Amino acid sequence: MSIVTVQLGQCGNQIGREVFNAICSDVHGMHGLCSKKENESYHDACKERFFSEEEAEVPVARAVLIDMEPKVISQTLSIAARSGCWRYDDRSHFSQKQGSGNNWANGYSVHGPRHREVIMNLVQTEAEKCDRLGGFFTIMSMAGGTGSGLGAFVTQCLRDAFPTSFILNHVIWPYGTGEVIVQNYNSVLTLSHLYQSSDALLVHENDVIHKICAQLMNIKQISFRDVNQVIAHQLGSVFQPTYTAGSGSHYSRNPLGDLMETLVPHPEFKMLGLRNIPQMPENSLAYSTFSWPGLIKHLRQMLIANAKMEEGIDWQVRPPRLDSSTPPSHSTNKPLHFNTSIANLVILRGKDTHSVDLGSFQDPSLYTSWLNPQDAFNAWKTPRAFNKYEKSASLVSNSQFLLKPLDSVVGKAWNMFASKAYIHQYTKFGIEEEDFLDSFTALEQVISSYTSL
């Protein structure tokens, strides 16, 4: 099944371009120990997901590009075309001459309704190119105006127009130190609206990716492109073809559906986090060796200690000891910093994946009491290496990983709202105080639900 990517705002368009670059680089890169037949199967599965191929042309990304300012879209189209490996359809983009001014209400209440018809026509056209539509993957920021406000509006339109299709929103969590003064308002409004219309939200935190660039990739002067390339690498490690438990000897044909079935067992819990190891500068790969037991040990500890990267893992955190009469969520000796999970998916790429022992991820103490660990944990594998890494492992987790950042954003936004700061900038575009209160209520319920795990 094919995935239509919807790139929204400056952030969404720049990350989207890097995602397609990473996918193409992987397809044409090292193959590990795979046979020619398996490589061809991998290539075909990837193409079906992400590209349509016109005769005698390079692959064309299944994507719609949307921004209220033309500059970034123009750059994105040009850079993709110059790659020579893939390109965007010249007709699958929409822009205007004026942005949303970092105002969520402007994107949601003004630009969205005004341009709904032309945007949804572009989406419909892209969807009709798919032999089988598997769903939509939207990429957007939470801090600005177009990506967050227009992104929330477009996601709502996608749900109305394609009620049976899967929608996965990829959202970029803003830097804690602040990008724009109203970013917490924008974030609260975005998350609360996406929670209603999306099937799941896959979150990357800017602060975390920045640390990965500095500490793992050894980048001295970190640019937005450096950050976006790390994000794209992690996304590619999840969305490139794999064998799932139900796909047998063929690569999975329904990536979004498989992801939702594996990780989102309840509509109250939609927050997904992503960790990928190893990550290091390309020039270090030739001098590095990795063992599966070592990678799995690190990945599991990253999960339970809520470490976002390999460096700085707290190895003192241990799962709670459970007796037969104490369900996991009610354990009296649960460690303070232990990260309880609802569901986890481990994706292994590279040689000898068939022999990897993943039993440590099936420990009942890792999970909430209302799911059987056998249902809460899944593994996808492929012997094909990913982007020059001989062995690599990714973890997509539905857990308490975002509780602290979410509570912080809601708290900061509430403090501003209580003093009526900047509210007039939203009410002039039709977002009333009641809309803010509804958003606060919705996210406080999300925080409460995840806390109760």
Automatic annotation (TrEMBL):
Its cofactor is Mg(2+). Keywords: Cell projection, Cilium biogenesis/degradation, Cytoplasm, Cytoskeleton, GTP-binding, Microtubule, Nucleotide-binding, Nucleus. GO terms for cellular component: centriole; cilium; cytoplasm; microtubule; nucleus. One of its GO terms (biological process) is microtubule-based process. SMART domains: Tubulin. InterPro entries: Delta_tubulin (IPR002967), Tub_FtsZ_C (IPR008280), Tubulin (IPR000217), Tubulin/FtsZ_GTPase_sf (IPR036525), Tubulin_C (IPR023123), Tubulin_CS (IPR017975), Tubulin_FtsZ_GTPase (IPR003008). Its main location: other. Residues 47-246 form the Tubulin/FtsZ GTPase domain. It is found in: Cell projection, Cilium; Cytoplasm, Cytoskeleton, Microtubule organizing center, Centrosome, Centriole; Nucleus. PROSITE patterns: TUBULIN. Pfam families: Tubulin. GO terms for molecular function: GTP binding; structural constituent of cytoskeleton. Belongs to the tubulin family. Dimer of alpha and beta chains. A typical microtubule is a hollow water-filled tube with an outer diameter of 25 nm and an inner diameter of 15 nM. Alpha-beta heterodimers associate head-to-tail to form protofilaments running lengthwise along the microtubule wall with the beta-tubulin subunit facing the microtubule plus end conferring a structural polarity. Microtubules usually have 13 protofilaments but different protofilament numbers can be found in some organisms and specialized cells. Acts as a positive regulator of hedgehog signaling and regulates ciliary function. This is Tubulin delta chain.
